[in-house]
Amino acid sequence: MNIFGFIQEIRDHLKYSFDEVDGWFEKDRITLDYRPSNGGWTVRQILEHIYLTNFYLLILIEKGSKKALRNSGGQDLDAEIRNYVFDREKFEEVGEYGAFKWIRPEHMEPKGQMQLNEIRSLMSMQYHQCLIYLDRMKNGEGLLCRTTMTVNELGKINVYEYIYFLSLHAKRQLTQMENNESERIGNKGI
After folding, report:
1. Is 170 helix (H, G, I), strand (E, B) or coil?
2. Dmax over Cα atoms in the chain, in whole Å?
């Protein structure tokens, strides 16, 4: 496994996901507040949900990165890198809206109590947090700590995979926001 290539891939995906999500903060009020016909969340609510999900994932990423760095003193990092296999297919499903049933915890549901500019600012900080973790674990250390991820039955995943998961979750939500906007535009003439 080329761990440096994998870390760069995660960086690139994070940049893409966060940049794409950031563009939604510029949408007009009608788009932001449009409720889809299926009764789902508005774009405004989806943006808050992305922030909340990132918030809780970053708690796990922080703990995992600290443990991974502590483990780097005692484990054979070279062997971990050599033996690491990334299950790309299973992870890519995380970024596909509707690929599997997603049951989110209640604490990740939007409450509507945050202003968009606050959410946007916090998301920018979250993006930079992810980059800091990748910088700290730049030599493959993120492989040295695994934590259980129940979503899509991913099982025990390492810290890099958690960061990638965070980015894929945002990608999944982008599709949902695009669907909302398409439906709103389609219903304009009604």
Report:
1. helix
2. 65
Query: Average pLDDT for residues 135-160, to the nearest whole number?
Result: 93
- Segment 148-173, tens digit of pLDDT: 998 878 899 999 999 999 999 999 99
Pairing of strands 146-149, 155-158: antiparallel
CATH number 1.20.120 given to 3-184: yes
Provide the 10 A C-beta neighbour count for residue 12.
11
Q: What is the dihedral of CA 42, 46, 48, 50, to 10 degrees?
A: 180
Strand pairing partners for 148?
Answer: 156
Give strand pairing partners of 89: none
With bands split at pLDDT 50, 70 and 90, how would you rate the model's confidence at 189? Answer: very low
How far is the C-alpha of 106 from the C-alpha of 113, rounded, in Å?
15
Residue 5: CA atoms inside 13 Å, Cβ hemisphere, count?
Answer: 4
- Show me where the domains of the chain are located: 3-184
127 and 67 Cβ atoms separated by less than 8 Å: no
- Residue position matching structure tokens 């990165």: 65
Reference 46, options 93, 113, 97, 110; nearest CA is 110
State CA 142 to chain mean position distance.
Answer: 17
Whole-model pTM: value is 0.92
